Amino acid sequence: MAVLRSETTEEQLVEVLVKHFSKADSFSIYREVAFLNKRIDIILVNKRTNEIWAVEAKISWWRKAIEQAKLTLLGVDKAYIALPMAKVDGLRRYREEIEGLGIGFFGVTPNSRNSRVEEMISPLSSCYKNPIRESELRSSIAHGIYLEAIK
Amino acid sequence: MNISTNVLGKSPFNFLRLGIHGERKYFVRPNLFGGIAFNGSLVALTPEATGTFLAVKMEENKPFFIDPLTYAFALSPIHIIRPEDRKVRKSILKMAEFYGDALKQIVGKRSISPSEFKDENITKELCAGVLNFQELALRESLTEDIDYFEKIGVDISKIAPKPTFLIPPYFYLDITYWQDWIGHNIDFVENALRLKKDIPVFCEIVISREFLHRQNELLILAEKYAQLKCRGFLIWVGNFPECEATVDEIVSLRRFIKELSKTGSPIINLYGGYLSALLSFDGLKGFCHGPGYGEERDIVPVGGGLPYPKYYFTPLHRRLPSELVEWLVVGRFSRKEEFYLEICDCPECKQILQNGIMNFAQFGEKAHMIRVDGLPISYATERAKEINNFHFLYARHKELSDVQSTSKESLLHQLTEAEKEYLPELSAQWVSHLRVWYEALSKTI
């Protein structure tokens, strides 16, 4: 059984997620993209459809993760929260709220040999999308207002 | 003269605080606020600019006052020193110059202690200095520009600003050391009254939040201050954000206000918001705030500090992150008319939303840049700050009109209705204060 090491950080979680999405070669991937008054951990731009997905990774802090993902729905087509699989017990408490908002959920198992990313809740297309915010987000990507691009 | 009815108008009355001169643009619509509050630090540092602003820019003869901030001299010098060069802030030095030798000699070196006021001459000198500063600093600053005023045909004697009331020196009362200071604070007021100025004297009472948990001590304070012959009171509870107040704290504050109001003198909260407007039913005459913020303040830092702009969400009577309101708005409304009906129909909101509801994003307009470590950061644009602040002024004006014309029962009912309406979407973090206010204000005291 994969065990979350106590020293697992948000950074490691993001690395696992980036590696996971890089495999398919379907997405342009950007890390720490400026949006509103914060940064989105991972932005995925679908190379075929041009859809934008956001992923907010957190070690715990369910409430903060939900609040952040909720606001990213203003600028993206789909938003996910990602937490370590070891913290997934909390999902029982928050599942209804997450599903109600249309946010997706990834459980992540960081493991040096066999990391896994599992979609446990599928997101809905954002019904909070504001074209002005979408355009701002695309502009941030186009103008390099992010930490790193993984094409 | 009855200050409460003749000068300050209907309750609740609001004073808009000018924190920095960059905020003067928010004072161009004088019908949106009742009076103007200045901190002594701003007046001491820029008397000419402040005096000219009042005399020339403010077309209406607005009530105003200057908070002399004397409590700053009893704080550890660390609170009045600039961290970058370890020098005393200029505004504090200037105030000390006006206030006399006792403070001038110690400023930046040590704090003043209560025992120093056992010398009656020091008390008298400080009182005279503090009152003269409020009465004359702005008036005298204009005489330095006498040529300019003559040139534009203005008679200075007619426009010289005169404060609506004067505030004697005062020092902060915390729950541990209040007994060391209270006698001196009262002496300052009595001394000021003996000076027989032709401007009314208001007494400022600054207490720590802990007093709201100590009924006996709070009532002793109220009794002592109520015996003074001053013409009004200013109260300031340090570090007391109204949206985070508990039921017991609000009930205590109501009792304190009620006790003081038995004097028949107006009571003004120096830092307050909508809760303060509702406290007018318990005898609070009015309250002060900045243009979009400044509804709460701790005693340190002394003056200064501008917060991140937020949207004042009138249904909840509090500021919210504009992105959160945008999320709510985009999810709820498809037409701007629905927004006007449910949230706000002020001229600022109508201007912003004229081309569609999605333009609400302008309230949260951001600019971005890359830090040296490569991480992007965002900050609110000047325009976003401006439109949020103007919207706030309209919203506050409407709130005050509503409180003036609506029964307490109806206003409390509105709180519970708003709680029911927004709790499911916005979570308790942003809504629970409504329940607390309702419970606290419904109690018979």
Outline:
The complex is a heterodimer of chains A (151) and B (445). The termini of chain A are far apart.
How many distinct helices of chain A? 4
Strand order of the largest sheet of chain A: 6-5-4-3-2-1-7
Q: In terms of structural class, how would the helical and strand content of chain B be classed?
A: alpha/beta
CATH architecture of the largest domain in chain B: Alpha-Beta Barrel
Strand content of chain B: 5-15%
Measured distance between first and last alpha carbons of chain A: 32 Å
Query: What top-tier CATH class of chain A fits best?
Result: Alpha Beta
Largest sheet of chain B: 7 strands, parallel
- Give the overall silhouette of chain A: globular
- Helicity range of chain A: 25-40%
- The whole-angstrom Rg of chain B is 22 Å
Question: Which residue ranges of chain A are poorly predicted, with pLDDT under 50 across at least 5 consecutive positions?
Answer: 1-5
Question: How much is the average pLDDT of chain B?
Answer: 93
Radius of gyration of chain A: 15 Å
Strand runs of chain A, count = 7
Order of helices and strands of chain B: HEEHHEHHHHHHEHEHEHEEEHHHEEHHH
Strand order of the largest sheet of chain B: 3-2-1-7-6-5-4
Beta-strand portion of chain A reads 25-35%
The outline of chain B comes out as globular
What's the mean pLDDT score of chain A? 91
Helix content of chain B: 40-55%
Explain this structure.
The complex is a heterodimer of chains A (151) and B (445). Residues 1-5 of chain A have low confidence and may be disordered. Chain A has one domain (10-149): Trna Endonuclease, Chain: A, domain 1 (3-Layer(aba) Sandwich), CATH 3.40.1350.10. In chain A, helix 3 links the parallel strand 4 (78-84) and strand 5. Chain A has helices at residues 10-24, 62-72, 91-101, 131-142, and strands at 27-35, 38-46, 52-57, 78-84, 104-109, 116-121, 146-150. Chain A is an alpha/beta fold and 151 residues long. Chain B is α/β, with parallel strands linked by helices. Chain B folds into two domains: 3-289, TIM Barrel, CATH 3.20.20; 311-405, no CATH class. In chain B, 46% of the residues lie in helices and 11% in strands. Chain B has 18 helices and eleven strands. The two termini of chain B are 31 Å apart.
